[in-house]
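Exam revision sheet. Question 4 asks you to relate a sequence to its structure. Input first:
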Amino acid sequence: MNLKPAGSGADIDERLSALTTNTNAVRAVTAAIERTIGPKGLDTMLVDRLGNVIITNDGVTILDKMDVNHPAAKMLINIAKAQQEEVGDGTTTATLLAGRLVDEGLNQVLRGVPVARVIEGINYGIGQAIQAIHSYSRNITAVDDPVVKRIAMIAGREHEDIAELVVRAAQLIGFEKLQDTHFKLSEIITAEEGADNEVFMGVVINKERMNQEMPKKLTDVKVLIIDDALEPERISDEALSTETGFRRYVELQDEFKANIRKIIALGIQFVLVDRGVHSDAEELLTDAGVMVVQRVAAKELRRVAEHSGARMLKRTGLKKALDDLEKYIGYAETVYEDKKLEQVRMLGGKGKPMATILVGAATEEVVGERERIARDAASSVQAAIRGGYVAGGGSIEIAVARLVDQARVSTKGMAAYGLDCVVNALKQPLSQIVDNAGYNPLEKVEEVITAQETRQKESLGIDCDTGKVADMLALGVVDPVPVKLHAIKVAGEVATAILRIDTIIKMKETDGGTAVADCKTAALPGV
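Answer key, structure tokens:
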């Protein structure tokens, strides 16, 4: 069936100007990360105006650091961030899928297919793709399953040392904890220049003790967490200038010191404070042999609380009786300061099990990248344990594309052309992976489609070392199901959102601050 849009070329250009502009912006963003995907993917160098450099092939990092102004491009970047937030990996795949969907959508509109029908077909195709992914899913029933290590290796870009750290931490934490939706394995990772790779049961506080006279190491430790400043309550300067106000000031100082003595009387040896610590408290606690760490990040306070069993307390809570304060105390076997790494470690907490992955890096320049790699590996491992895994390397997308294509015969009318957009977009990951490996993408994609149809095996893909068709499951090339599902879902959402835009309006501000617009509207055919 030949489809031709009505009207002259000038009319078509005018009506499609918004869609064409947005598609070009999306293409530019996609081009920035497409060379990073796959085992032969390359790195990108990001440079800011001060000359600071980041070298990475992490899709979300590249997109997040790019200087982008176009609204459609920002929409694409936002789906990568959503992918990262939800499952922690697969941002490049999500971006490639979305970019190709938009590109294919424009091509169909240029052929004369109404936008509404393209969107209808895309939505139907995305639904079919999600069902197909579920049908191919394989479950993981134990953390010591060998496939867990392979998932860590793939997501960790074949860094075996990092993959081993992640798997060891997952085993320490246990299968049940990894299923907890409130727990993120990626959050237990820290990277330090000059550190040795290490996994241990405990938590790291990336601060030093506030006073070098405080003890460096403690055993059988009582822990107190002040989710506040450890300072006396304040009164205003105006009130302080009065006799009554001054008396109140003296009372507050005395009350504060009495509260600090309660900490000492309870035998607390380790105090973590959200904000600053008053000099009087510092002096009293130092003399009593208490280690204090101030200005601790909220995330680290929560981890210490969970691991030690401590309950966070506001400074006003120190007014409580000693018996009541006992209920807020946590316990740990050991607390010590690592002077070299400028951090404090707490080991053997009596609360929930908590592991820490410490990733070492030789230089400051690679610290961030190794941490990103470890976080991707940890996120993928946890996602697979929660939701299962499928064959990777772009093979599963080809299998899904074949199933979606079969649904074309039952698709009504011109929505079938929207379905074609999904089929072609699903071929993009494998196409880009083999292209980055130095092979002809058209040739290799067709080889995989033929092989899968002939042998009825969804796991067949391309071995990027040999260029030959191979079983990805046999090679250990696997991806978490949640990563694939979310990438397809968000790609469909952003693609249809962009395809719906037929007018771009530049807003201006009036003197009163109200946004108004001055533009010429344009309508796309069929909408």
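Marking note for examiners. The radius of gyration is 29 Å.
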